[in-house]
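Mods, move this if it's the wrong board.
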Amino acid sequence: MTMIENEDYKLWVDSGLLFSVFKKPIDMTLEIAKGAIELRHSISNNQHQYWCMDLRNLKDTSDEAKKYIDEYGEEFLYACAMIVNSHLMKFLVNVFNRMKKRKIPVKIFSSETAAVKWLNEMKEQKDKDYKTSIGCLN
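Not the wrong board. Structure tokens:
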């Protein structure tokens, strides 16, 4: 298992999926957003990933951080599952995601198990589509 972290954020790759978590309750500033995305780019090694992002310790996000995430947050991703722990957070994340057309599939979950299941289904479908496109499946 590969792992990388900074003061606020930890990422790791396990069973072909990228996982992340805020290490403590946090209000995301532009600086924290830049650090998190830089770490994600580093661990992905410029390769696309299926990302299980745990947002349960995220308390708030500044407007500057939202703008930065909007611009750079989907690079090197195939799909993103976001884990939240409240209906209010789920609502806020859904509103944020609907405000901008996403380049990748994004779905909100309340459990890691459901998020991982969805990401694995997305990964399997992409693999199947790829094999079909190159003529490996009938």
